[in-house]
Amino acid sequence: MNNLGLKAKKAGREISRTESGKKNSALLKIAEVIELSVDKLIAENAKDLQAGKANGLDAAMLDRLALTPKNILSMTEGLKQVAALPDPVGEITDLSYRPSGIQVGQMRVPLGVIGIIYESRPNVTVDAAALCLKSGNACILRGGSESIHSNQAIAACIAKGLSEAGLPTESVQIVATTDRSAVGELITMSQYVDVIVPRGGKSLIERISKDATIPVIKHLDGICHVYIDDKADIAKAITIAVNAKTHRYGVCNAMETLLVAESIAEKVLPALAEQYLEKGVELRGCPKTCALIPGCSTATEEDWLTEYLAPILSIKIVDGLNEAIEHINHYGSLHTDAIVTEDYSKARRFLREVDSSSVMVNASTRFADGFEYGLGAEIGISTDKLHARGPVGLKGLTSLKYIVLGDGHIRH
Amino acid sequence: MNNLGLKAKKAGREISRTESGKKNSALLKIAEVIELSVDKLIAENAKDLQAGKANGLDAAMLDRLALTPKNILSMTEGLKQVAALPDPVGEITDLSYRPSGIQVGQMRVPLGVIGIIYESRPNVTVDAAALCLKSGNACILRGGSESIHSNQAIAACIAKGLSEAGLPTESVQIVATTDRSAVGELITMSQYVDVIVPRGGKSLIERISKDATIPVIKHLDGICHVYIDDKADIAKAITIAVNAKTHRYGVCNAMETLLVAESIAEKVLPALAEQYLEKGVELRGCPKTCALIPGCSTATEEDWLTEYLAPILSIKIVDGLNEAIEHINHYGSLHTDAIVTEDYSKARRFLREVDSSSVMVNASTRFADGFEYGLGAEIGISTDKLHARGPVGLKGLTSLKYIVLGDGHIRH
């Protein structure tokens, strides 16, 4: 691991000063190599799938683990998209003269070496490598042990692409061992690694955050809320609340709790409940909600704190905006929360006062996503408050340093 | 401590949505109250000074601890300056339409609750409170135990000013106990505190970073370099190198190591050495440097890694730009480094490739400072790579959340 770190740091220095054109050509070369290696990748992946089956992985996990011609194509398309994104590195902003005569500005720079720890999906190997490379960072990738053959085959493609483009192959390194202690080393090598990005379930992320001595960009719960205000347009409210819950269930930006202003509840909840029940969504409500919706079970305190990631929804009737904001700031997870309202002042207050990484007016929480936001791709969604909040794209993998231009200026 | 945290979190919510005008009027009220309390402050400070003398504090520490009419005036001027700065909170940037029809932008928001741990200087109490308040954050301040009476007297002024302005007095809280375990609690109350800013010596900061479970904005060493390139203007080089070392010795942005291109060393070093020796600066050089400067002692490996904070300078003759950049990135502390050159391409490379929070061309490292950069004031200088690098002003105490505006938009 130490050797990996040392090499990554060295490669990181080189990649940090590499021109955009060269980085882009490396990304395209990697895509080319992957396109030529589909059979090999699928063969290596078959070993992982076979081992996975033997080890009793469930169908969902095997599905995430599988490489198919279709998801290999989406990997190479991802590489081409990242190549097409503007390079954030070296951008200089706010360069202006100070009274002393010096010019002061800020330059966007890579973070250095990024350690990425993820679970079984092998496509993360390519996505993460592409984002790190484009943002001028070296990376050390530690995928799930279930996908070790797939990841090593992908890593070989990446290394070939890098080398064909004349970039150091150590810019992207895969931890070749499935030994768990490697993770422990990776997250404490502060002399080599600048930031850790864990991707996976909450327990993985909590474990890593607890033990890491390096800053972690983390994504914990997605307890997202939609608040239907008394001044909501009912048609919009229903469309958004249905989309936010039922578009996909297992995603972090799905709504988990619906808040409804008391004075509009009677008009909106029965119609909404009908659509949810039709889609098989289990409803758990506060007593007032239960009185309006037959078949709704009573929500417990625990429900307001739960990310179901499933066709379950908790519903609470609130007095109005103040109680809604208070509920979200208390029970929410700083992820994504939306208000549905036609009221200008309430929209303005909700945007300012809800302390989440994405705050929305009259839009589905499902939009909280790097592609939808125009970041091109994301390495994850941060629920931290420092550095990067919300979808983390190329900029989230960089920082700003100050630059000062003088002409022999000294301080008096 | 728990109670302090709970109150801070509540006050933080209120202060985060407080209008700029009200925050500014609180800052000015606090200044007013302090102006009316000079005698009281000096009397309370006298208790600390007396105890400090009895406990054998040295003259430098007593000097930092002392409140005088002059430094009280500079505290109130600081408050007025912060009041005059633009409010960073709520600023919306990059709001633009996406193909889906939603508008996506970013809003600058406070971090929440900031814990500040500092050593004996009581003026930090006012400076830190002012920056946190203006940036919409609540803060919990833990000053050195030597200044407990002074800090409590200042805290009373702050509380009075806040309350006269109609803001919650819990926005700024002082840890009233000198018990060391309070620090341990403060840096692990992740449910209440969002970030820790330690201000003080390296050992304090290292200790806090090690034990904190909350993100820390830290300032470790300031091992700053000036590199005199072979294309340097010799007059500028001498002026800058003298200023960077001798303007003040005990500051983090003073030069600690001078690098000189071999081909210009003979022309610049003897003249420079003369000025340093005149000012009583001890010189420690590489063998080539020692050959050029009589009386220069030989530098050890340890010297390149040392922040002297004293009239001592290490000097190394390097081949040229590549070796200079390599030396800085290897031995430096990511703080501030400068090149002196008239060569456009070398200046361009130095700016891009030196990985420090401030990188300068033809200017003294002494400019690395919040006031000089136009930030108005600083809570510290960060040598971290995430979140904020270099002088941390109001913006460094905020973060960006995404805002999304739609009109019933859902994801397809």
UniProtKB/TrEMBL annotation, chains A, B:
User: Could you state one GO cellular component term attached to this entry?
Assistant: cytoplasm
Entries under SUPFAM superfamilies matching the protein: ALDH-like
Q: Which residues form the Aldehyde dehydrogenase domain?
A: 7-276, 305-368
Kindly give the InterPro entries that the UniProt entry links to this protein: Ald_DH/histidinol_DH, Ald_DH_C, Ald_DH_N, Aldehyde_DH_dom, G-glutamylP_reductase_CS, Glu-5-SA_DH, GPR_dom
What UniProt keywords apply to this chain's record, in alphabetical order?
Amino-acid biosynthesis, Cytoplasm, NADP, Oxidoreductase, Proline biosynthesis
Q: From the UniProt record, give one GO term of the biological process aspect.
A: L-proline biosynthetic process
Q: Which GO terms describe its molecular function?
A: glutamate-5-semialdehyde dehydrogenase activity; NADP binding
Q: Which reaction does it catalyse?
A: L-glutamate 5-semialdehyde + phosphate + NADP(+) = L-glutamyl 5-phosphate + NADPH + H(+)
The protein's matches in PROSITE patterns, at most eight in alphabetical order, are given as: PROA
EC number(s) of the enzyme?
A: 1.2.1.41
Q: Where in the cell is it found?
A: Cytoplasm
Report the pathway entry. Answer: Amino-acid biosynthesis; L-proline biosynthesis; L-glutamate 5-semialdehyde from L-glutamate: step 2/2
Write down the Pfam families for this protein, in alphabetical order.
Aldedh (PF00171)
Query: Family assignment?
Result: Belongs to the gamma-glutamyl phosphate reductase family.
Q: What does this protein do?
A: Catalyzes the NADPH-dependent reduction of L-glutamate 5-phosphate into L-glutamate 5-semialdehyde and phosphate. The product spontaneously undergoes cyclization to form 1-pyrroline-5-carboxylate.
Matching HAMAP family? ProA
Name of this protein: Gamma-glutamyl phosphate reductase
Question: In which organism is this protein found?
Answer: Methyloglobulus morosus KoM1
- Gene, per the UniProt record: proA
